[in-house]
Amino acid sequence: MSNRDGGRPGQRGVHALSDAYVADYAALDPIMATYLGIPGNEQDLTDYSPDGYLARAELSARAVRHIEAARPADATERVAQAVFAERGGVTREVHDAGLDLGALNVTFSPVQHLREVFDLMPTGTEEDWSAVAVRLGRVPQALTGLRASLDRAADTGTVTAARQVVRVAEQCETWAGLRGAPSYFESFTDPARQNGTSSMLLAALDSGARAAAGAYAGFAAFLRDELASRAPEGDAVGADVYRIASRQFTGARLDLQEAYAWGWEEFLRVEAELRQVADRVRRGATPAAAAAVLDADPRYQVRGRQQLLEWMRSLSAKALTALRDREFDIPDELMTLDCRIAPPGGGVGAYYNGPTQDFSRPGTMWWSVPADRHVFPTWREATTVYHEGAPGHHLQIGTAVRCSDRLNSFQRLLCWVPGHGEGWALYAERLMRDLGHLDDGELLGMLGAQLLRSARVVIDLGIHLELDLPAGCGFHEGERWSPALGLELLLSRTIVDPGQARDEIDRYLGWPGQAPAYKLGERLWLRARDEARERHGDTFDLPTFHRQALEMGSMGLDTLREQLDALPAGAEPTG
Question: What is the average pLDDT across 361-373?
Fold first, then answer.
């Protein structure tokens, strides 16, 4: 049994200390608590002021000290100790560099968290709506705290580039109802009017919705009128900041030059295979021409958001059924995957929210689509369903949530390393291809997505480190990277939708180090599977490898490599 005893910090086991940290962290980050399904903080919002960031950093530092001083009771605690120490060390680096205070981008930053948390709140009862009303009324205070942190970041030179500031202002204006549609908050509270909600609660919801919308409008004005002029015009963050960000997103100390060179090798390899598949779709067609053929093919079209939703649900259900008891041991709790259309205002694409600990809220795949799009090419998107759903994030995160007998709550709920998690999701896409679940059209979509992920490696590293384009790449060789060249590469050498391509560039520029983690993580997952197959030979069992690997939980890539290397021959990880 794992050591989850009580006592003073120095006397408690690694798992008990980690569980206590998550409980304490949930109190300091109520938005994350809602994301994770931890009850007790439903009316509160996270303090994004400098004091709030300091409190969370100090909590992490104390927990690291106690956990490193603890004596692991068994193998599961030894792994947990290594995982927490690595993540805590990165948290300290990020805070010491002031990068947490300056976090602002179009994809994943406090501005989005404050809006998206409402999507995850229950609304079935008056008590639920009452919590929503209180939380809405606290949005202005949360944004005031965030403004103070961004002011501090601007003073210390750690605020994001002006391009990001302006784009986030546009998002805020959309959610505030300043761009032709009702505010997000007004639309979100509309269903309460249809459920017999009391007049007093409706008044509180209306007041909260107006306050939240007004706060987002004011925050947009702050970004445009004040912060943008103090933000740097250049997009590159430089090598020092990038190394910290890269460790944050991969959990590895990478040789950045080697990663850049490998990214180009992978880009050219995938591009060559994409051309071969394009030729099978239509003889002599380029990838772009083949994509146009498939876009016009009614077999690969769904029309309207309701049809898109039904297609997502159908494909994810088929995948779960096909994989169960074959390549994966899928328990009943994970056979349910909710699919939803995300509210407007965010970036283009899909994302996943994990289930609550008791699975009362199932894992959910969200799809963000432009308001003016009505026809959706399924050949492009099938691989995304496998990435976000099964066998991707849904099985990965859901498996960890179930493993309460071997993983503490930090490992199951709070630890998320993109290099590990997104690397697995890319591995899952490739697995569905290997298992024969893709026809040539869907394979073109999968390879197109893989090419995009390879492009992310070279564009992200290239722009932020101000690298030159290498000989042999066939694209502006010898020139130095710029955002314009990044967009040109996506538009000319990939088959990504042009609207998504522009979103992609904004993402790289505002979230340095995150985008390459997908491909770099997939690289390690493939290597781990190949090494396990070599160790076991004819007795290698793919479902066993998948189960044991996922039951280890999320961790940094260097930690994962250490844990795999430490295993005796013939053994696989047991968490």
Answer: 85
What pLDDT, on a 0 to 100 scale, did the predictor assign at position 369?
79
Give CA–CA dist 219/171, Å, rounded: 11
Q: How many helices (H) and strands (E) does the chain have?
A: 25, 5
Question: Does 102 have pLDDT greater than 80?
Answer: yes
- pLDDT mean over 194-204: 87
Question: Across all residues in the chain, what is the average pLDDT?
Answer: 91
- Helix axis angle, 542-550 to 516-536, nearest 10°: 130
Q: Which two tokens stand for residue 558?
A: 């260097």
Q: Is the pLDDT of residue 142 over 70?
A: yes
Peptide linkage before 391 cis (omega within 30 of 0)? yes
Domain boundaries, the chain: 1-100, 103-234, 247-517
Question: What does the angle CA 257 – CA 467 – CA 161 come to, to the nearest 5 degrees?
Answer: 115
Query: Quick check: 119 and 342 in contact, CB under 8 A?
Result: yes
Q: Shortest CA distance to 390 belongs to which of 332, 320, 329, 321?
A: 320
- The radius of gyration of the chain from alpha carbons, rounded to an integer in Å, stands at 23
**Residue in 201, 181, 183, 185 with CA at minimum distance from that of residue 193:** 201
* Paired sense of beta strands 375-377 and 338-341, if any: unpaired
* Stretch 527-550: mean pLDDT: 85
Residue 534 binned pLDDT confidence (cut-offs 50, 70, 90): confident
Cα separation values, 32 from 47, 96, 256, 260, 392, Å: 11, 22, 31, 33, 22
Q: What is the mean pLDDT of residues 143-156?
A: 96
DSSP 339: E
Return the higher-pLDDT residue of 563 and 526. 526
Query: What angle do helix axes 75-96 and 50-69 make, rounded to 10 degrees?
Result: 150
The pLDDT value recorded for residue 345 is 62
Instruction: Of 401, 306, 308, give the one whose Cα is nearest residue 363.
Output: 401
Listed in sequence order, the residues at least 6 apart from 5 whose beta carbon sits closer than 8 Å to its beta carbon are 11, 12, 13, 16
- Around Cβ 235, how many Cβ atoms within 10 Å? 23
